[in-house]
Write a structure and sequence with these properties.
This protein has seven helices and two strands; from the N terminus they run H-E-E-H-H-H-H-H-H. It has a two-stranded antiparallel sheet with strand order 1-2. Helix 5 packs across helix 6 and helix 6 packs across helix 7. A hairpin with a 2-residue loop joins strand 1 and strand 2. It is mainly alpha-helical. 59% of the residues lie in helices and 8% in strands.
């Protein structure tokens, strides 16, 4: 899947198309939850799950790791921070070809991209997100003492 910079985190038309397919199959339901749409498992998912058991098992470790990460996310704002940081890390690494990326480089990349995030509170949240993703093993980056 290809992602690109967008105002609300990285965006992928592929993800949007996949979500539409899941909703059309009744694997997901979209529910209004305040100002955002919440996705809930739909009624057809359990019925169809056995047909895809082998594929699910093949990707079991990735699925478990993803569930672990998403179970730690408490808000849409935090979700945006996480996916933005992961995207930034990958973008920087593509340009460096094997060279180690630092937390500070990721921090600077994000603030250059997301100008409205350059507030004290958001900088603190961003630094914490970067460090947490490194500690949890979701991305590799050299620890920056300045953070």
């Amino acid at each position: 899947m290809q992602f690109q910079r967008a105002s609300y985190g990285p965006f992928s038309p592929d993800v949007k198309a996949a979500l539409r397919t899941f909703v059309n199959r009744n694997w997901l339901n979209e529910e209004q939850s305040g100002r955002v749409l919440a996705l809930r498992v739909g009624p057809e998912y359990e019925k169809d799950r056995s047909r895809f058991a082998k594929r699910i098992q093949e990707h079991g470790k990735k699925i478990a790791k993803t569930v672990d990460l998403f179970s730690r996310i408490r808000s849409t704002e935090q979700a945006e921070e996480v996916v933005t940081v992961l995207f930034a890390s990958r973008e920087i690494k593509q340009g460096k070809r094997g060279a180690e990326v630092t937390e500070q480089q990721i921090f600077d990349f994000v603030l250059d991209w997301k100008k409205p995030w350059n507030t004290e509170g958001k900088r603190r949240a961003l630094a914490a997100t970067i460090r947490n993703l490194v500690v949890l093993g979701w991305m590799r980056a050299q620890i920056s003492e300045s953070m």
